[in-house]
Amino acid sequence: MHYGTEGMELRIPADATVLAGRNPPPLADGEAAVTAALSAPIGCPPLREMLTVGAKKPASAAVTISDITRAVPNKQFLPAIMEVLNTAGIEDSRIVIIIGTGMHRPSSDAEREILVGGDVMSRVEVIDHHADDPETLVTISDDPPVRVCRRFMEADFRIVTGFIEPHFMAGFSGGRKGVCPAIVDLRTIRRFHGFGILADPAADTGILQGNPCHEIALKVARKVGVDFLFNVAITRDHQIAGIYCGDLEQAHLAGCEQVAQWAAAGIDPDEPGFDLVITNGGGDPLDRTFYQVVKGMCGALPAMAEHSTLLVVALCDEQVGSKAYTDLMLRYDNDWRRFLVDIEANAHETRMDQWEFQVHTRVLERIGLEKLWFVSDGIPAETQRHIAVAPILGPGNAKARAQRAIDEYLEAQPDARVAIIPEGPYTMLRRG
Fold first, then answer.
1. At the N or C end, where does the chain have fewer CB atoms within 10 A?
2. pTM attached to this predicted model
């Protein structure tokens, strides 16, 4: 099981169902593959040609990357992108790398070096996006109001990078999400995560057609104008498995189709729901906060019925998440039904981070709080008692407590049907 950086080994019945996609192999020569992809992109001319042919001939460039919560192998492709920019006449001093933090916390200096590498850090400016700082934003639309990172908009040539994985709200990550929510203002982020948007059944894993989350982000990205997309798919150890670069929409769709094949794990459509489902928060860096762990919870929904029990293991060494999210969870103190009533009554006003609790309630509506078991070594026991889970506490570390919970469950229900999702949120469960 994914758990922090070390993983977690659990003993399960021999007849348990393992729900896992196919782990794609890494590209044999990642560096050569990146260079080749930049020369033969999807839906547009080669990157170098776009920079040198025609009237535009840009003198500056902005490149967005994901923040530390995403395991994107930036160091494997950023140097090649910068080399093409340099060859086209854009000097390092005219290149800015923007970390698309969305509404996540700022990056530390150490995290920036992890993200891009020391060589890139020493060559170009690397900055965080600040969604709450009006001085760093520029308006691109008044109806609806949308503001975007000024440095990105001021660049002559705009590149968006990232990786594609199943996403529990937007269908898939990558593509347009490198703009919205990555480098937009808080008001736009709140609209993107509004109550009505997430209440739509199409705002779910693996769905793009009719997904309001996807459509809002794509509309914003089109308005912003992205000159070139560079997305990757990754292996379980974060190596590049596929490259999808070129046109913002065409390259992203090609990547989503490939990732869907790799990530999908089928469940018999007649399956009534497993008795015990075991999943995780995705391991490092995704399971550093409980906020991100909700993805693993929701990803398990296709395997569950009302009678199911869900066991989620996640390190959460940075605890619950942002102050706004932590305060929200503690304020409602497990009363998730009251939370849903409140946000529906105030659907015109989206509070910071309420969206994560809203999708968390999809699981609670299915199985109830008492059967949403949670095991973590990172969050204090007292806090766990108030964040709308049934914490598995007591002696021993997380592994010992998780194993004890499994063993006791099976002792009481020896004929229970068990399913385990070793890759957690990186697996896309599908019935049929």
1. C
2. 0.91
